[in-house]
Amino acid sequence: MPYVGFVAPVGSATDYYGTGLRIGTLLGWHLSRYLSINVEATLDILNPKGIASSFENYTFDYSLSPLLHLPVGKLALIVGPKIGLFDENLIYTIDGNSYNESFSGILFGVNIGLLVDVGRFEIGGLFSYSGRYYSSPCHVIDEGGNRCTYVSGAFHTVSLSGVVVF
């Protein structure tokens, strides 16, 4: 089930980021008519707010995402948790200094979708919440030296995507 949509930060992250692009897929197998087991891979590209003259933010999520499928006529409600890992990379320049930061950690969340049967496939929308807890941050300044620092906390996002199920 590939999807494309938008992602938005929640909470204190809204001070630093605006809405961005989300691209991903859920790949899985039906264990029964009502339950599927899936792996999910997502790329989020958030738009920054702030003083950086150039800024790139890429977050890759990898999760296990089982789904409960509740059919209602030609519609199907899907809902399920997700748990996994994430890698976040930030590349930016402030006052002529270049910075490269990478973070990783644990991901948890939920997917909720509504699909309509249109013959050989289904189309619909997918709402997703993701909470990311940092566990491995590294901050590198491109002035010939490396400096890794510890950053704790969480980063939360919500997203809405269009989906196709083959």
Word description of this protein:
This protein is an all-beta fold and 166 residues long. It has one domain (2-165): Porin. The chain is built from no helices and 10 strands. It has strands at residues 2-10, 17-30, 35-48, 54-64, 67-72, 75-94, 97-117, 122-134, 138-141, 154-165. The model has no long low-confidence stretch (mean pLDDT 88).
With helices defined by DSSP (H or I, 4 residues minimum), what is the helix count? 0
Structural class: mainly beta
- Percent strand: over 45%
Total number of beta strands = 10
Name the helix and strand elements from N-terminus to C-terminus, one letter apiece: EEEEEEEEEE
The whole-angstrom Rg is 18 Å
* Shape, principal axes of CA atoms: elongated
Described by strand count, sense and barrel closure, the largest sheet is: 10 strands, antiparallel
Number of domains: 1
| CATH class category | Mainly Beta
Query: Any idea of the CATH topology?
Result: Porin
What is the CATH architecture annotation? Beta Barrel
Q: What low-confidence regions span 5 or more consecutive residues with pLDDT below 50?
A: none
